[in-house]
Amino acid sequence: MNSSSGALSALVEKTVEGLGYEFVDCERLARGLVRVTIDTTAEGGISLEDCERVSDQLTHLFTVEDIAYDRLEVSSPGVERPLKRARDWKRFEGELAALELFAPLQAEGFPEAGRRKLEGRIIGISGESGAEEIEFDYFEVDVARTPRAAALRAKKKKTVESAPVRVVFPLSDVERAHLIKELNFKG
Fold this sequence. Notes:
Elements: H1 5-18, E1 22-28, E2 33-39, H2 48-64, E3 71-75, H3 86-91, E4 96-105, E5 115-126, E6 133-138, H4 147-155, E7 165-170, E8 174-179
Parallel strand pairs: 2-3
Antiparallel strand pairs: 1-2, 4-5, 4-8, 5-6, 6-7
């Protein structure tokens, strides 16, 4: 079976969720690499043993289904977890996120040309399946993402934060999105 990306993704999703994990993504990349990303709502997140368990199951599945691949990589989504589906946006309501839209968004409080890249807080998601809308508070997120940024942030004086700009846009307009986590580099 030489699966298309969509068929492969659906097959992997069914298997991953059957094992009790949350399916995040499946990518077919160059040189025969299939990358599968899994998550869990359980305390502690995804462990190496979880990845091994899913990898073993997918290896057997690919053999049975005659799916051609050279390497299989199973991993957790990491701290800046991608937001792919409506359920991801619902699960992470109230969290900080960065996103890029397919086209600039026009909203009061934006520069005249609009914005494609937004950072802020996920307020909520509503609407029927296939027509979901994201409610999002746009503002400049000031979190340390690297040790250097943490050091610079510590030296910088606090500035007055501007009020967030509340925007609403269709989920289908989102090209890519991920969570933003503030990391503690002090140990």
